[in-house]
Amino acid sequence: MTVKLGYLLPTREKIMQASHSVRPMIEAAKEAADLGFDSIWAGDSLLARPRHDPITLLAGVAGAVPNVDVGTAVLLPALRNPVVLAQQLATVDQISEGRLIVGAGIAPDTPAVRHEFTAAGVPFERRVGRYMEGIRLCRALWSGEPVTWEGRWSVTAGTLAPVPYRKSGPPIWSAATVSAGIERTAKHHDGWFPIGPDAGTFAQRNKEFRAAATAAGRNLDDLTTAIYLTVSIMDDSADAEAAIDTYLEDYYSAPAAALRKFQACKGGTEDQVVDFVRAFVQGGAQHLVIRCVGDHRSIQQILARRRDDLTV
Asked: Percent of the chain scored above 70 by pLDDT?
């Protein structure tokens, strides 16, 4: 099985370091592509965890780095008006000539995220319905045909331009973690894109995803299973694990032990991390999105060099 490798740009980390320039991330994207990575990703948050806007950043990456996919890991569509979002994503899909992947989620229920929704003027409650309807409206607008819509948003014979480069629009990968969300993803979206928590649970939930997709009459060959992994590679595994704990607590302002319960993280030696990643491939992961802790370049080089070992 051919497995794709993705690199998550450190947008949040750069802001935490008071580095607002985009140029270093464009260069990092180029370096990852030169090493053979298949995709470049950017996370999303307005105020809860401030960072560069993923849509405009990925437009720049798509223009600067050819032949790799660009994706959001993950976008929070409920924070945005879907008519505006549909135009933005269609434009990036045109810039990339069909290389955009929209990883999307509903947002976690934390005080900071609730404040973020309030600041954006968006109700936090019933965000699952807002998320699902917003994506449906985007897809309707991507047809290029006049759309009339009555729901949370109102559109009267509206025609969007440009339409996406791909006739069906960019694929939507949903970051669902509970059974109801996985079933919705299997029925309505193009891929499943969780953040963890461990290889065994991931494998079981992937079986659930694929079974639900089959029951819904979907073609499994048209669907992707991805995984978002946080890794650190050092000579001393204890140092690497400690680096991840410090990173998680600085990034999320929460205890690392609590975060590790639902995020797939591994600090260790080269062999230990390769074994960790391989376990998710064996569980059905087709696209690996890697968040690096520590020396990003060194981690990229190791994973690129050991790529064949990830599927053994």
From this structure: 100
Contacts of 19 (CB under 8 A, 6+ apart): none
pLDDT tens, residue by residue, 46-73:
999 999 999 999 999 999 999 999 999 9
Which pLDDT score is estimated for 244? Answer: 98
Dump pLDDT digits (tens) for 185-237: 999 999 999 999 999 999 999 999 999 999 999 999 999 999 999 999 999 99
Q: How far apart are alpha carbons 69 and 23 in whole angstroms? A: 19
Quick check: 172 and 72 in contact, CB under 8 A? no
Percent of residues in the chain assigned helix, strand, coil, to nearest 5 = 50, 20, 35
The answer to whether the pTM exceeds 0.90 is yes
Q: Strand runs (DSSP E) across the chain, as ranges?
A: 4-8, 39-42, 69-75, 100-104, 147-150, 154-158, 172-174, 191-192, 224-233, 265-268, 287-292
User: How many domains are contained in the chain?
Assistant: 1
State the Cα–Cα distance between residues 308 and 202, nearest whole angstrom. Answer: 21
- CATH number where 261 lies: 3.20.20.30
Question: Parallel, antiparallel, or unpaired for β 154-158 and 147-150?
Answer: antiparallel
- Reference 202, options 182, 219, 223; nearest CA is 182
Domain limits at 73?
A: 4-311
Contact residues for 91 (Cβ-Cβ < 8 A; gap 6+):
59, 162
